[in-house]
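Hi C.,

You asked whether I'd gotten around to modeling the 450-residue construct. I have! Everything is below, sequence then structure, no commentary in between.
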Amino acid sequence: MEKEDFGHAHIWRVAYPLVLGGVAQVVINGTDTAFLGRIGEIAMGAAAIAGLYYVTFFMLGLGFGIGTQILVARHEGENNPNEVRNTMQQSLFFLGALALLLFVLMQVFSPWLLRYFVASDAIRDSCISFITYRSWGIFPGFAILWVRSFYAGTANTRIISVTTLLTALLNMLFNYLLVFGKGGFPAMGISGSGLASTLAETFTACFALLWLASDNKSAKYELLKKMRLDSGAFRKLIELSSPLMLQIFISLCSWFAFFLIIEKTGAHNLAISNLVRNVYMVLMIPLLGFSNATNTLVSNLIGRKESERVFELLKRICLQSSLCTLVIVLFTLTFPRLVMSVFTNDEILISHTLSSLQVISGSCLLFSIVNILLSAISGAGFTIASLIIETLTLIIYLLYVYWLSVRLHLRIEWIWSSEYVYFIMLGCCSLWFLKLRLQRKLALSDERNH
């Protein structure tokens, strides 16, 4: 591969389907909020907590999927299709078992957990109704993750944008039919929204698996040939992925804890924060896609024994990520009411959310660079370091949120300013590791390889 193959054009070819793929959970959560926002603040607030509750479990699979993607990219860089197949098979075994475990946990323990954490009876009952149907989506959701891990790791990312579009369209259709009771279906409210998302992912999973089975480009890997559990490969995948799983789980738990803290301040603040969260997730779409691409490209370079090019690559990815994020931020700040009207038609709620939206728009520009740096650490295989950095940052972040909201009783926009504390600390720690630790470790690794 020539040096130009990791230039801006190549980065964009790998990243843009991943950018679109990052829309998947954003589209599902955003669509749920858009429909439930027409019902009322209780349903909208419950969607915030229940949606984050489900996504917290789902992200355990995403962490393992990213670990799979990193190893697949490493073996692809080594031109070793047999190890790609072996990695994907071990990943399938683990994701299947994990999906079953998480489904049972959500079905059995969710009512108890939500009764313990959520103060409002109305919001809590709505959350339980949503999770009862939404928890079934863990099976098709993990199937989609498995397919995407393969294609992201091999840098053949077109299917990711296709499956995202399919999920978005189906989720909107099923929400329309089941939330409001259209087309002869019963009006199920928030329960219908949970069922709609699950149905959308089920159809998308079937499509993704059929695509994989009929794709000539994936035929050489023979992913489902001679399925067997390889204890060595399985252990290697677990060692790489488990810190990522824990890191993402802790990150989502912090989001869940954030909303539980906000819920203590009242249903109106919770509804504002849910609206902010959905716009926030839209602003994050490009940077999450570029972060995912960073995992693949950094791991692929290391697999090719070209570690010295990692920092040059990161500069290019950061530039593209920040520019794409800037475009969306400027559009959001120019037309804030238009953006928020997608999620709710409550003019009072929109007016009260404007100041918080301005606060988080700036933090996204920090995030567009910081998350690339953190992804480079995990993409290089130093997933434990990535876990430690994020965990320490999140502890300080949550303490700061609690201090602003519960102790000082500040307005909601001041509470959202905590995002700056989080990203500045995360960026400084990531940059320190990249400059002082990762560069030295990569150099030593290259010396041993040569």
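If it helps when you're writing up: The chain has one domain: 3-449.

Thanks,
B.
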